[in-house]
Every structure is written in C-alpha cells, then in structure tokens.
Write a structure and sequence with these properties.
The chain is an alpha+beta fold. Helices cover 30% and strands 27% of the residues. It has a four-stranded antiparallel beta sheet with strand order 2-3-1-4, sandwiched between helices. Strands 6-7-5-8 form a four-stranded antiparallel beta sheet. The two termini are 14 Å apart.
Length: 179
C-alpha cells in the first residue's frame, strides 16, 4: 500500500467552494482509501491506496468530490516518496528567511513546472528566488516587495489554473504527517 497526498485546488477560499474536512475524509474512505487524514481547511488529504496509478487515483478523487460536494475541483496526487525527494532537493534559501514568504507551488498535470515558469515569465532576482524540482516550484520573496514578483501576478493567467499553492509550513507539515 502506497501513501499519497491529494491537494485540492481553490477550496474554502473567500467563502467559495466550501468543503468540510470531516466530510472530505469520509468521502475518501468511502471510495476505498485507508489511513485518511486531512490537514487544515485548504484541502490537504493524506491517505493510503492499493492502486498505484496516479491518474486513476486523481480521477476517482475528482469524481467523488463532484458527486459528494457538487463541485468540479482540480486535484493533484503526489506520492509520499515524491514529496520527500522534492523537499530533500529544495534550495537552501527556501524557508530560511523569516522576513520572506516561502511557498511550494504544486503543478497539476498535464502541466509541468518548466511550462508554468515559462508562462509566468522571467524571474525578477531583485524581488524573488525561484527553483523547481519535479512538479514542485520553490518560491521565496521578501514580504516588503512581494507585490513586485512575477508569481504575485499569476492570478488571471492561464497557468494559474494548473497550480495549487501551499506555504512552506504546510508543505513541511504534510511531510511529517506521512509518517
């Protein structure tokens, strides 16, 4: 049985796409996943599955969410080992400065991290640091100049619908919850 994390995009934000975490947990259990845990209200689910096909898991999760909550929510599935390796390869500057925002941007397939970065545009090194490993983009920016970064302007761009963002604390906590 392999462990996975499902990240739901755009739920419980500004009163839109409301999903109860206890109900979401029950939904995942009802479709056969085991050891189901949710973490905070932003749609982070840790679970075990006998299925090892990420596309099949993604489709079953999205269908269950549609059937239960009547919402079409994009889901990205990350095998536990993949998150572990990505965080082991995070750049040294990521989550190292308390005066900066640090996010992990999870790319929802079929998009790739490279494609998302190309669509967003050239990094502004005076305002932000960006790197990626696999499907995870690591991004840090000083709080004082956050609004000048290219990633702060992603809302409304086509690439915005192919990502889901978690801050560094949430991302690291998800890794801890896998154990």
């Amino acid at each position: 049985m392999q462990k996975y994390i499902a990240l739901l995009r755009g739920i419980n934000v500004g009163g839109k796409n409301k999903i109860s975490m206890p109900e979401l947990k029950k939904t995942f259990e009802n479709i056969g996943y085991q050891d189901v845990k949710t973490y905070i209200n932003s749609g982070n689910i840790i679970f075990s599955s006998p299925i090892d096909d990420e596309d099949e898991i993604k489709k079953s999760c999205e269908l269950a969410i549609t059937n239960t909550f009547h919402l079409n929510i994009a889901v990205t599935i990350i095998p536990a080992q993949e998150l572990t390796v990505a965080l082991q390869n995070a750049p040294s500057w990521w989550d190292s400065d308390s005066q900066s925002k640090h996010n992990a941007i999870f790319v929802i397939p079929p998009a790739t991290a490279k494609e998302i970065l190309e669509q967003i545009g050239i990094e502004k090194p005076e305002y932000e640091k960006v790197s990626y490993y696999g499907q995870v983009i690591f991004w840090s920016a000083p709080i004082t100049t956050f609004s000048r970064t290219r990633l702060s302007k992603i809302v409304g761009k086509p690439s915005y619908h192919s990502i889901t963002i978690r801050n560094a604390n949430t991302t690291k906590k998800l890794l801890q919850l896998l154990d």
